[in-house]
């Protein structure tokens, strides 16, 4: 997500054709990575003798910094507490 900030800065100087090429290439690469891990993820884990339960335990501490963002903390705050402090503009 942070790369979108950098991309938006450079996208202003790009032609629509260049933006389209980059968009298509990005979607193809991201989809290929997802399909690879969906279809071959269990084989890859078996190859390295990694149990799925141990993988979940190993990944959890790595995910916490991504979950503990200011946005996530605000989203998880008590809505009753925030309703008196926030004004939503439409």
Walk me through the topology.
Blueprint (H helix, E strand, L loop, with lengths): L2 H9 L4 H32 L4 H16 L2 H7 L2 H5 L7
List keywords for this structure.
90 residues, mainly alpha, 5 helices, 77% helix, flat
Secondary-structure element series? HHHHH
Which blocks of ≥5 consecutive residues have pLDDT under 50? none
Main sheet attributes: strand count, strand direction, barrel closure: none
The number of helical elements comes to 5
How big a fraction of the residues is strand? under 5%
Structural class: mainly alpha
Helix content: over 70%
Please state the average pLDDT score: 74
Number of strand segments: 0
> Any idea what the shape is?
flat
Using only CA atoms, what is the Rg? 20 Å
Distance between the termini: 26 Å
Kindly describe this structure:
The chain has 90 residues and is mainly alpha-helical. The longest helix has 32 residues.
Summarize the structure.
The chain has helices at 3-11, 16-47, 52-67, 70-76, 79-83. With 90 residues, it is mainly α.
